[in-house]
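Appendix B. Chain record.
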Amino acid sequence: MQTRPTTGVARKIFLVATEESGDRLGANLMKVLRQRLGDAVRFEGVGGQAMAREGLASLFPIEELSIVGLAAVVGQLPKILRLIRDTARAVVDAAPDILVIIDSPDFTHRVARRVRARAPLIPIIDYVSPSVWAWRPGRARAMRGYVDHVLALLPFEPEAYRSLHGPPCSYVGHPLIEQIGQLRPGVEEQRRREASPPVLLVLPGSRRSEIRHHMAAFGAALERLRADGVAFEPVLATMPHLQEAVAEGLKGWTVAPRIVIGEQEKRAAFRIARAALAKSGTVTLELAISGVPMVTAYRAGAIEAWIVQRAIQVPSVILANLVVGQNVVPEFLQQDCTAEKLAPALAEVLSDSALRRRQVEAFAGIDKLMSTGSQPPSVRAADIVLATMRKARRPR
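C-alpha cells predicted for this chain:
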C-alpha cells in the first residue's frame, strides 16, 4: 500500500549510477520511492537522463565515465579517481538516510568503501550484484565491510552470496521480466518466425569495442552459412550511436543484413526471429525470454581476455545458461569465435535440430525461474531500501 506523507523531515536518498542501464534502474526506483514517501523525500547523487527526469541533479554528466578498454581506462585514471573522491565526499557532506549504489562496481564500490570509512552510520544498498559467482568470489566476503544489502537481478545470486559469506542478498527481479510483452511474438509475428526464409538476428554488441571485435567473425560466419546452402534473412540490430561503427564493420561483409536501429525496432526483430547470433551478455537473457534459440560468441582484447580466462569460476559465461541451470546455449569465446565454428552451430539452431529443441524447452521455464510474483522489480527494490532505512534508525 502506498503512503504519501507530506509533513515531517524529508528523507534524503543518495543514488549513484554511472551507466545507462543503471540510470534506468535508478529512475524506476526513484519513481516508486516518491510514490511511497510523497513530498517527504529528496534525491541527490549521480545519474543520467532517466534519473534527471525524476528530479535528480547529477553531480557530473555520466558520459564522463563512458570509457571502454584497458588502455583508455589507464589514460583517464586520474580523472576517474578524482570523480570517485568527489562523489564520496558529496555523500558524506549530504549525510543521507541511505546510499544506493547501482551497478558499475569498479566505480560505485570504491565510492561505497570511502563513505563507509568516513561515515559508517550511513546504510548502503548495492543494486545489481557484481559477478561474484563468475570471478573474484572473494569480493562477496569483502562487501560485508561496506554493503548492508545487495539487490540481485538474477535468481541464483542470493544463494551465491550465502555460500560465499557475503552480505544479505535478495532477488528483486530483472527489469526484463517487465518487458515480456515487448519481447514475445503476437499471432502474425509468430507466423513470420515460423515462415521461410527464417529471420536470423545478428547482435554484435552494445559498445564500439565489442562491434570492432565481432563484426569480421560474424560476417564471415554468415558468408559460410550461405555458402553451405542455408537459407536465412539476416537482420542486424543496433543503436543510433553505434551506426557508424556498424557501417565500418559491414564493409567486409558479403551477406548484406537489413539494419534495424533503436530499442523499438530491436524488440520487433526479436519477435520475428527464428534464431540469433549474439555477443554474450544481457542480450542472451533477452533472447531466452523471447524464446529465440541462439549461438553466442565473445572476443576481447588480448590483455582483457588473458585476465578473464584465468579468473572465471563458472562453467558458462552465458546468462541464459546460468539462469536456466543448463549449458544449452553454445558459446564460442576468443580463438573459438570463428566462421568455421559459428556457421555449423547457426545451421543447427535455424533447423529443427536437437540443439534447437533443447533451448526451446529450457527457455519455456524461464518465467517461473525469474518470477517475482505480483510485484515488479522496482517495487521490491524500493521495499528493501525503505526497510533498510527504518532499520538504521539514525538520529538526524
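Further analysis of this model is presented in Appendix C.
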